[in-house]
Design a protein that fits this description.
Layout lengths: L1 H43 L6 H8 L3 H7 L3 H26 L3 H17 L3 H11 L5 H21 L8 H21 L5 H16 L3
Helix pairs in contact: 1-2, 1-4, 1-6, 4-5, 4-7, 5-9, 6-8, 7-8, 8-9
């Protein structure tokens, strides 16, 4: 009886370990596909990049690609979710760096400018594809929460007016940021550096206490 229980526990542990290893392998391959696609999209553009090229770059078979992503568009959707996570990480980073809300927002907009201007026209094409993807309420909340934390600290420190809910202020800041990114990706002569800098100055002035 005890031997049966022991064998059963060992088999269960084997399957759990195997399943975990399988999941890890899936994540690793999926990550390689996404990384390869991001590099090729950035270099050649989304439309010009073929699935076969992504497979070559990721060193996988074509069938493996379709096991993870039904279409190339699904890879773009994943990159859009990842980009939202990067924005959230940038907010958390500047929250830890700046001493005031103004300094933190200035850092966020300045770093966003540099990230947006990195690369050539194909990088801009990639950003245009990413901002057009509806990333879902859960991912939007994940990006919004760090901004809420930053602004709540500002209210507590007294450098943000408490006249309006921080939820409203966070929506205004993030909404303004994305609106400018969208306009830039769709307008050839759009001065993103000037627009983001001006927007940051306006937002900081608007939310400052009297």
């Amino acid at each position: 009886m005890h031997r049966c229980i022991y064998v059963h526990q060992n088999l269960l542990w084997f399957f759990v370990r195997s399943e975990s290893r399988t999941e890890r392998n899936k994540r690793e391959v999926r990550g390689r596909i996404v990384a390869a696609a991001a590099e090729l999209f950035d270099e050649h553009g989304v439309e010009a990049t073929k699935v076969e090229a992504i497979c070559d770059q990721a060193d996988i078979a074509l069938r493996t690609f379709f096991n993870h992503f039904p279409t190339k568009r699904d890879v773009v959707d994943q990159l859009a979710i990842d980009a939202t996570s990067e924005v959230a990480a940038r907010v958390r980073s500047v929250h830890a760096q700046g001493r005031s809300t103004r300094e933190r927002l200035e850092l966020f907009f300045a770093q966003s400018i540099e990230a947006s201007l990195r690369g050539g026209p194909t990088h801009r094409e990639l950003l245009a594809a990413l901002v057009a993807v509806p990333v879902g309420a859960e991912n939007l909340r994940a990006a919004r929460e760090p901004m809420l934390d930053l602004l709540r600290d500002g209210v507590a420190a007294g450098d943000i007016a408490s006249d309006h809910a921080v939820e409203t202020l966070a929506d205004v800041v993030i909404g303004t940021f994305y609106r400018i990114i969208i306009d830039w990706t769709n307008t050839d002569d759009y001065e993103i550096r000037e627009h983001l800098s001006n927007a940051c100055r306006f937002l900081c002035d608007a939310i400052a206490p009297e």
